[in-house]
Amino acid sequence: MKSLPNPCLVLACQAFVWLPAMAQNALTVPVEIVRVSNPDLAAESRGSVMLYRLHPQYTFQSVQGNSRTELSLGGMIERSGNTDLSASRSLPSVGLLWENSSPVDVVALRASLEEASTRETEFAEFGRVTQDSTQRTATLRGTWTRNLTAGSSLELAASHARLSYDRPLLVDYAETLASALYRIEASASSRYSLFASAARLNPDGGGEGASRRQLGVGYETDIRDGLSLNATAGAVRSTAPRKKTVPVGGLRLTYRGERINYQVAWSRDVSTGASLGGYMRSQDFEASLTYPFTASTSLSLGFNRAQSLETDRDVGTTAYARIRSELTRFWTFTMGLEQRRAMPFGGPTARGNSVAVGLVYAHPNF
Question: CA angle, 85 as apex, 84 and 87 as ends, to 5°?
Fold first, then answer.
């Protein structure tokens, strides 16, 4: 595994010097016990495993005049009852945001470093079952937003991301991206946007680099109170693993009511993939609903479907049901059921289930 990127660590440490003594902060600590059957989603299950998870998150925020600084520290500590089926892991995360606002401009600088399981990231984005590896992502990003008129704005952004893995079969790479977004208000309830981006991906080991260019338009509208629609459409030109231009886009319908919330979304995009070290097409669908039984207890239902649109055309689906119940001001009980299905192209369908029980400690002003 590669050494930690120095810029992110330096920025995170300096945040403690920059921030004043008086500031807002928050602490959240979920603790969870999960029983997972067939965790690697093999065609023939090798059994079940107990996972013990601790996922603390601490946020420290300061506002001085026109400037806002925010530091977030967290991670996911997971211990496995059977490391042959699922590895024990510690996945830290650190993020730093500095933002300066004026009546017409907003400048923001972000730095982050986080680790994740490729078993989770690849399945969520491409529906692919991959080896149990750790993915480390270090990102630096800057944005500048300017209000051109009372109803229009321009946003310019640039970022550099470095991804590395602890398994040699996955390709480490760096990606540099620049983008521009122009937004205009058509009315009090609708907005149009025009966006463009260009990215360059360079894999380690002297492999062939890849480029990605995108043009698109967007439309947002508030259909009625609590109900909104967001739509995008465009095209992406990428050069690896092979040169091609493909259509991309998405639709998202969101409703937030007094008692019920729901969301339905579909998207088709081109993004980086760990297995090939290039750009890959994918298609995703998700739907979720939250219904409160009482003032302190709610039920959430959801379904996600991710599909690779490359030659493998793998499909992965996740269906879940979760209950949250506030026990006291700071403590919440959680329970969840989840089923996953992996449908590799030309192969048998694999299924896995999980049952989770946990407690969450949350203090908004720790």
Answer: 75
**Side-chain half-sphere of 101: how many Cα atoms within 13 Å?**
8
Q: Say how many C-beta atoms besides its own lie within 10 A of residue 29's C-beta.
A: 16
Q: Is the dihedral of CA 145, 149, 150, 152 positive or negative?
A: negative
Residue 313 token pair = 């055309």
Q: Which helix (H) or strand (E) holds 299?
A: strand 297-308
| pLDDT tens figures, 166-217 | 887 788 899 999 999 999 999 989 999 999 999 999 988 767 788 999 999 9
Place of tokens 């925020």: 61
Count, in order, helices (H) and strands (E) of the chain: 2, 19
Give the side-chain half-sphere CA count within 13 A for 204. 14
> Model's pTM, two decimal places?
0.86
Contact 312, 301 (CB under 8 A): no
Secondary structure class of 320 (helix, strand, coil): strand
- Cis bond before residue 56 (omega within 30° of 0): no
Give how far Cα 267 sits from Cα of 19, 139, 233, 305, Å.
39, 24, 10, 11
Q: Write the pLDDT tens digit of every residue in 234-276.
A: 999 998 767 889 999 999 999 999 889 999 999 999 988 755 6
Residue owning tokens 């097409």: 281
- Bin 34: left if φ > 0, else alpha if -120 < ψ < 50, else beta: beta
**pLDDT tens-digit map of 57-106:** 999 999 998 999 999 999 999 999 999 888 899 999 999 999 999 999 99
307: Cβ contacts below 8 Å, ≥ 6 apart: 126, 127, 282, 283, 284, 313, 314, 315, 316
Above 70 in pLDDT, residue 153?
yes
Closest by CA position to 119, among listed 110, 106, 128: 128
DSSP 209: P
As given in the structure block, the two tokens for residue 164 are 């590395």
Q: Do 113 and 91 touch, CB atoms closer than 8 A?
A: no
Q: For residue 205, give the 3-state DSSP assignment.
A: coil
Neighbours of 256 (CB within 10 A): 13
The predicted-structure confidence for 296-313, as pLDDT tens digits, reads as follows 999 999 999 999 998 778
Q: What is the average pLDDT across 12-41?
A: 76
- Give the Cα separation of 81 and 38 in Å (integer): 14
